[in-house]
């Protein structure tokens, strides 16, 4: 089906559904969305049913936008907004989104921007034409979010051309005859790291994740040279389940070597993966290693992102529709559900999931309209992988912190900047506020502060109780006085040399580089101190070696070997994991609605994948597979 045919069909639906007195000026296909430009925005605002009928009639996503002639120039519009809104509202940012004709107004007092019964908003809309959207100013400003907004504004014309190109590709005809569905495992199967899969139908090729194994010097990349993958230009899209580098770290490589298509993910995933990819390049440079890409390719990734909210269904190829659902793992993490053909087949990739409400997020979604095959992680899928609850983990932290701090020691916690850091922060702040452990400085080193700022920019992705605590009761635990951002090498050295007890949260989470190593080098031989692991330590990492009770570790210290004696306490607190343990994984599959016919297991050490596959087969009688990398499985 050509673009012209889709637009002709859309026009027929518009004529049938939209009242004759509503002026439609243009209908365009931008990416997966049919965009209808109108000079009668009020008619659509007053009748939501029109948009629903249009979407049903076209069987596509529909966006209604004001005709560009109705929109005031940005400079004039911003000036008008500031004149209309009272100063007491304390506006902190105004940004315009040409893609949807909206202007977002950030303010410390959003109620004053809205006005009684929306009077001020209505005045803004009438004056400038842009549709105003009001949000409360995030408690912590994020440089990443601001930079991405600024970048997308700068390349607005490029984005528009890109979306129209995606729309044309989506509109291509599909071949007649038998269809089929295949999965090729390109990385992250029978291992943790470099997650990557390829979902193929007769007419489509979609990549799910493209991560890097940071613990490997030789095999850190997925098998992107596999014949099914090449040429990269043939891919219809790349879907990113979440921002951790083992799932998103090599997305920019695709753009480096010729990919020019869309990247589908949630808005926080786009921002967080940009942050982590930039840091990945910086770390490689700092260690005198060659990074697999540079900042240009990260910018290309951002430019090609098509953000999707949870529950929003969109066409990503002529025969595949995608819906992202909450995975409960980190901010914006998603289960990617693919609806293939006209009801022919349904596949879901969990990415990394947590099937339990955590301090930050709701439990992973376990209900889908249809589901035949599930691809699930097994990081903690082994027979003995049972984790304590969040409450038990908090009690364990309390005991360790009280012991270490009361004896004058320092508590070093290696963390991933995204996810675990924020949960550990919440627990430590609560324990100190309730006087259950001594109140000492908590230092945040690495990207933790910026990652936390991104969390506060997307409150709708946090669980409801935390949102209420931050935005309604005014108690923001992330802004507690005990937290101190480490913003220079001089400050880091002062902390290292300070004799007073303290707690350090520092990246990297597996101790393969990052600022955590600087503290570890200084404090490893002091038995008063403690190293506390709260996240997964992959095989081959320094963190895993220390967990295995190595008493001596040799590090690369600025090009020279440095051998450290480990005399500090080593503690492991498992209950903070963003991964489901064995019981949660079994419970997740057991409570899925509908229950799939087949489960494919990946993202786990070899014996854990096999163990979980065997257990699911015995418990539920369903077909299970634990493939190796580079296997192709026919699903339909």
Q: How does this structure look, described?
A:
By secondary structure, the chain is an alpha/beta fold. It has four domains: 3-69, GMP Synthetase, Chain A, domain 3 (2-Layer Sandwich), CATH 3.30.300; 71-137, K homology (KH) domain (GMP Synthetase, Chain A, domain 3, 2-Layer Sandwich), CATH 3.30.300.20; 151-383 and 579-627, Ribonuclease Z/Hydroxyacylglutathione hydrolase-like (Metallo-beta-lactamase, Chain A); 390-576, 3-Layer(aba) Sandwich (Rossmann fold), CATH 3.40.50. Helix content is 35%, strand content 22%. The chain has 21 helices and 28 strands. The chain has a seven-stranded mixed β-sheet with strand order 12-11-10-9-8-7-28. A hairpin with a 4-residue loop joins strand 4 and strand 5 (102-107). The longest helix has 20 residues, at 267-286. The protein is globular, with a radius of gyration of 26 Å.
Topology of this structure?
Blueprint: H1 3-17, E1 24-30, E2 33-38, H2 41-46, H3 48-58, E3 61-66, H4 74-84, E4 91-97, E5 102-107, H5 110-114, H6 119-128, E6 131-136, H7 143-154, H8 156-170, E7 181-187, E8 196-201, E9 205-208, E10 237-239, H9 245-248, H10 251-256, E11 263-265, H11 267-286, H12 295-303, E12 305-307, E13 313-317, E14 320-326, E15 334-340, E16 345-349, E17 373-377, H13 390-406, E18 410-414, H14 420-433, E19 442-445, H15 448-457, H16 464-471, E20 483-485, H17 489-497, E21 502-506, H18 516-523, E22 530-533, H19 542-547, E23 552-557, E24 560-565, E25 569-572, H20 582-591, E26 598-602, H21 606-620, E27 623-625, E28 632-634
Parallel strand pairs: 2-3, 5-6, 9-10, 10-11, 11-12, 16-17, 17-26, 18-21, 18-22, 19-20, 19-21, 22-25, 26-27
Antiparallel strand pairs: 1-2, 4-5, 7-8, 7-28, 8-9, 13-14, 14-15, 15-16, 23-24
